[in-house]
Amino acid sequence: MFHTNMFDSHPNMLDMSPHKTTFSETDLGKPRDDEYETKSGTDMDAPSGDDQDPNPRPRKKGYRRHTQRQIEEMEAFFKQCPHPDDKQRKELSRDLGLEPLQVKFWFQNKRTQMKTQHERHENSILKAENEKLRAENNRYKEALTNATCPNCGGPAALGEMSFDEQHLRIENARLREEIDRISGIAAKYVGKPVTSSYSNLSSLNNNHMPVGNYGAQSGTVGEMYGGSDLFRSLPAPADADKPMIVELAVAAMEELTRLAQAGDSLWVPGNHHSEILNEEDYLRTFPNRGLGPKPLGLRSEASRESVVVIMNHINLIDILMDVNQWSTMFCGIVSRALTLEVLSTGVAGNYNGALQVMSAEFQVPSPLVPTRENYFVRYCKQQPDGIWAVVDVSLDNLRPSTMSRSQRRPSGCLIQELPNGYSKVTWIEHVEVDDRAVHSIYKTLVNSGLAFGAKRWVATLDRQCERLASSMANNIPAGNLCVITSAEGRKSMLKLAERMVISYCTGVGASTAHAWTTLSATGCDDVRVMTRKSTDEPGRPPGIVLSAATSFWLPVPPKRVFDFLRDENSRNEWDILSNGGLVQELAHIANGRDPGNCVSLLRVNSSNSSQSNMLILQESCTDSTGSYVVYAPVDIVAMNVVLGGGDPDYVALLPSGFAILPDGPGMNGGSILEVGSGGSLLTVAFQILVDSAPTAKLSLGSVATVNSLIKCTVERIKVAVVRDNT
Predict the structure, then answer these.
(1) Which residue stretches, if any, does this entry annotate as coiled coil (predicted)?
(2) The model's pTM
(3) Which distant-in-sequence residues (6+ apart) come within 8 Å of 460 by Cβ?
């Protein structure tokens, strides 16, 4: 490292005799003491004319060393600007009492030294990579040299083997090589070779902690999980655990691949058009499961679903292996996610062989359903036939001090490339969970597997791929006056709507981790109220924000509820803030095959002059597993910037809206008289700015007002949709 006083501590470093009156700017690439010294003023004057001595004698030069302050000032300036211009050098020399030439030489030598250090560091990295490649090449040569014939035991030629035998040997060598490679990655953390023993893995994971009793459901789950946040307390895996993690990931990949490609013996039709796992056949097929037997008190939940999506396989892999893209695409399911450590980034410039330890929290958009927290490893691999696979498997048993309410058996997806940029995705969700804390009106939905199962993941993926394709479309017909045809305007408006939906999802579920504080004493048992203070946060208005959410059952099919809430013509029947005014659609972006999947810009024509210019941004989206209608008031000036292709990140939003889920696996063919017979589970959530001063005190009157607002809205919706349904 460069030290500011490294030359001041060596006064005899240079020859200061009178016979040596000149010096070079650098000495073997290092700054010299001379460059940190200043000549005296008299020595700077050169003799001229008759005053010159015909026999000049070498004169001893006068020097003074740089002061500590001068060195510190130049060091600080170098960090900000390594290449000062003439004006900056003159100003710096004037401030420090130095000559501009001295300042110039100091910066030149400093740059030279930094460049040398950087090149030395790069060379060491390249040398290490070269040694690694050479060792791998030698290993391949040795493996080819030592190949033996299966019949005589002598050196083998490919011609002596049958085709099937060649194929099996190649496959066996490839699998052994993969395990060795990943085990090698883990070995560098523990300093010793990794031994493969899957039976040891099973015995380790048999030692489960007892499952705690979380008590009965009482309204919302915020109080049960607000006291301790296991998610934030998760450490990175210990070095001693990493070999076990590698083995577990390889075994999980094999199990996922077999489950995804298995026939009817392992999978049976479910009651919502998905396939569910036959537990008995599964236990016979996979007797030595890496996670051991199912812990007492946990319920198994496994489903499989396939879909063809409009996205190429490479982009899908990038999204699944990037925690930010993954949590954004599945924001309705993944309430938060974090990559704790990357054990391998893959090979050949892609994610083949990538291995990362993660934690995530999965949710249903309702405060009445507890979230599922998981600590797991994610492994990506390209199969020999070109199919990609991404698998998750829990590591909860590596943290024995905590009680796990949910663990992931090998879950994930297989991605097959199709022509024209399409991909076929086969998704498997296999979990073991304690869901006794789920509210009674959601139990049928959760037990059916629709709430967290493969069908919901696949439906969300399909819808989001259509949305992304819509944002990239350029050939938009201009037939409808409300349609936005500008490519830049469409992208900006879709980006703003995406942020709005993500913000809504972070406040509607049972998660208490998103900077919200749950208010336990709100005076209303069936409404969960939270508060948040915002100060100078882009995209959020400053002040105190209240978020209120509640869920209830409606004896009306989900599609009818969705169509009612997204229709601007029926908005005045439930929206109290519109004061009964008519709502007009100003702009429209379709982002899917279903006409319900769209982003709209609405204007409220209210009789109140103060609200005559009120605009509302709304996104509605629907699939077979659920629907959303999310909206937020927006500023007219800001929206003009967005529609012109401007940056939408600084538009302030406070989203509110609705999440509509089926109350069970399907219709019973008759009247909707009870939960599970074809009705809807509706969650209403509002975010309201109650005071624009972040330092203001939250009053109980504000909480009561929000409670009244949400209750009044709920009653209006119940009356309107039940009346229309009958």
Answers:
(1) 111-146
(2) 0.68
(3) 329, 330, 332, 333, 623, 625
